[in-house]
Fold this protein.
Amino acid sequence: MNNKEPVKNQWVVYGVVYLIRNVLDGRYYVGRTTKFKKRRAAYKALRCEKQPRIYEAIKKDGWHNFTMVPIAEAFDKYGLRTLETYFIDEFDCLNPFFGYNLAKGWVDKEWIKQLEFRKTKEYKEEMLRSQKEKKEKKRLETVKDLKDLLTKNAERRKLLDSLLGTKQDCSLSSILSDFMT
């Protein structure tokens, strides 16, 4: 009993959402990373050219006038992206008076490919074909349901006829003709 291994923590932190604050004007930048220390070093060394607002601010005011702290932890990529988007909204970082962010959050390359594909003729044809298939499937299900219902009605008529002693035409064609009129 004593030789059991301790249970390891199943929740391993995937990454963090961080907040950079300019102490001179109080503006914020929200970002995400899986390697916080390396990201901080990159900002300090001005290796953030792809983020022009924060890059220009650090270049102008100096890294010593900025604080960078992790504000949330995530356990997977989706959670990290979701938290980043949430905090960008929360701190109003898209507003140039309050923040340095230029975008609402992550942009997934696969998602962009999907958007581009949706503009193609091939996609529209595929969607039209899919919609037709769905309509046909629904129509066939409706016809099957109708046949089942008519079969049950025919069985009920036979039962009723046997109980009442009358004879009626219970064929599917006669029921359909009665149903259509």
In short: The CA atoms of residues 83 and 147 lie 53 Å apart.
